[in-house]
Amino acid sequence: MTSLDATTSPVLAAARRARTAAAAVAPLPRSAKDTALLAVADALEARTAEITAANAVDTDKARAAGTSETVIDRLTLTPERIRAIASDVRDVAALPDPVGEVVRGSTLPNGIDLRQIRVPLGVVGIIYEARPNVTVDAAALCLKSGNAVLLRGSSSAYASNTALVAILRDAVESAGLPADAVQLVPGESRDSVRELMRARGLVDVLIPRGGASLIKTVVEESTVPVIETGTGNCHVYVDAQADLDTAVEILLNSKAQRPSVCNAAETLLVHRDIADAFLPRALDALADAGVTVHGDARVLAAAEDSKVTAVAATDEDWAAEYLSYDIAAGVVDSLDAAVDHIRRWTSGHTEAIVTTSQAAARRFTQLVDSTTVAVNASTRFTDGGQFGFGAEIGISTQKLHARGPMGLPELTSTKYIVTGDGHVR
Amino acid sequence: MTSLDATTSPVLAAARRARTAAAAVAPLPRSAKDTALLAVADALEARTAEITAANAVDTDKARAAGTSETVIDRLTLTPERIRAIASDVRDVAALPDPVGEVVRGSTLPNGIDLRQIRVPLGVVGIIYEARPNVTVDAAALCLKSGNAVLLRGSSSAYASNTALVAILRDAVESAGLPADAVQLVPGESRDSVRELMRARGLVDVLIPRGGASLIKTVVEESTVPVIETGTGNCHVYVDAQADLDTAVEILLNSKAQRPSVCNAAETLLVHRDIADAFLPRALDALADAGVTVHGDARVLAAAEDSKVTAVAATDEDWAAEYLSYDIAAGVVDSLDAAVDHIRRWTSGHTEAIVTTSQAAARRFTQLVDSTTVAVNASTRFTDGGQFGFGAEIGISTQKLHARGPMGLPELTSTKYIVTGDGHVR
Fold first, then answer.
1. Check: CATH 3.40.640.10 for B234-385?
2. What is the ipTM of this complex?
3. CATH annotation of A6-228+401-419
4. I want to staple A398 with a disulfide (CB 3.0 to 4.6 A). Which of A228, B167, B303, B315 is the partner?
5. Which of residues 334-353 of A touch B (CB under 8 A)?
């Protein structure tokens, strides 16, 4: 709807080239797309030295700037990691093609044949932080689903991303597809993100992947439709009737198996009737795992008899996505009180209930409105790979278009085909 | 994500009440929602005098302001029209409930049961113009799909909408549902629309229904996710191989059966190989239907021998959604040239091809990227009723979430239910 002058902006010029490439890629059969993906995987392996050299520029710069070694590790590409990335691309090639799938179809009473079929979205923009492997993952998923992709990675990975995208483009072109189906958004400054967010009419969807502040900016400022991803303030609720061993195991797994990811638990809620039996065991287990508890009054009272480190919880704790060895914890008077607490504070990602009561499981799954509700299972299962999607472009925490882990079908739209023999109204 | 202060704004206060109502309506079984809808239908008929009295206030005001009789007719509610509206509500009650439908499900390799089920969106905002029947239609569809609705109608229908919503709320409440599931957005000024567009976190989706300028404003300014609806610059392409009778019939039906609607055709494209045979017949037929042709050079040359009124087409004509007895018309050198023209100018609503060639039909449906591609059928079939959806909240012309006619399933999101026996990773 917006008239955009591509001549004045390299970002918009790139988006316009992506649009042309998208029209060429959309009707391609699976074989053409898979050939390109396999060429990409081969090229990544063949040109590993080029990638690691470029990556060294980024990691040297990060080290000079005093970046933490954890972040530098996320940024680092080794030959082994590059082989793993290439292997992921081959896995994407092996997945079924979502494009062309008939979503529904019928013959209407007047004899018209109606079919709704999956088609690519068009031009997908991905705005992401740190990890350069996202560059390849996202490009592979977009290509497989017949889309052109505009990649806007972190400036801290600019050299790595530039090298990777050059290799991707060469490989795509060698397979007969337009190189412009994969582009790095030009420019390292924030302005390029801003231009991408205003490219409505050229870019069909923006998917921000990264920290909460990046996602918030894109969601609030973009005129291009956005799929909000990833913020996870996940809850584990231990019901009045729960197996204590199961509850401890699910709590620990949800919190501590990998605390830095969005499907890790950040809040524990315990029904008052089981608190006396459960909390001593839970707090000790959390202590053993190195977790600090931010508790309400009843949890703090229980913590006095435990070796756990416990501090008083504030509203910031109920809202927090710690992504660390911390957990907020409270005692609730009922299942409905747990649901109310979750409704108030959740980011809508994943909430788990541990219960032996069928009625409680049923009520919790009905009332909790998040992408995923887990019954007697860890919050950590909310994941495209775990769900059997074979790949994941992110986890949508919004309600429109896609909700939860997004695989290839979530990178498509649909169109209707109406076939008649001269039918008129 | 945004923190919103409901105390300072009646619109945000209404949105907050809608949010509470939405949580109560979402888990209701079909029977509770249908009972409320039937109560609404009965109440509309029982309180017809109240509605027509309020409506007279609006129509008197419009007449005093010199509004055209066409617009006043659209605004007018007669007892007969109210009966028809009530009957539509009963039809919505008779439709299947989309909520709870299992979209997909499987048992994962680790034994976890995974189900993706339809859930309501939550709070739906509808911003619409003139016709007060939309007030009832939209409320009925939102209730049936378990959503709360915020209705922001035209200020020209404010008295009618106020009366209708009062009746809707009474009926909903009498059936045991929260009255706040249906609310009229307070205030007649543009400010209330602006506040609604900034209510991210309280309102889950905004659906603008009305003219192009309303839709453009909402799409560009809203931080709440939007479903873009309805602008239709639809094309009819007559291929080199086409049955001339069929082509004339489809052209006439697409253009002139009801020119004021979004699925009416606005542009005719004719393959050059059939132009000499087709254009004389087509232009005379358009003349008989009272249609003015805005033609390119080749069409204007053909028009010299026809009784049709023809003027030279400009770029504005290729872009126009006339909604009147006008059509842009051009001759193209190939099917691909027709596709290129459509890609450049279409609003992405509906494009039809008339052809006897299977190869041409296949290529056109592959390359044209609009909500609906019609083969040997009128553009006028793009409609929820025609598609057998039983109802329609609008026609989405965007690619995210819903594309084409939107029925009840398009007013839902999904959530995943993960059920285990203490599963951890």
1. no
2. 0.94
3. 3.40.605.10
4. A228
5. 343
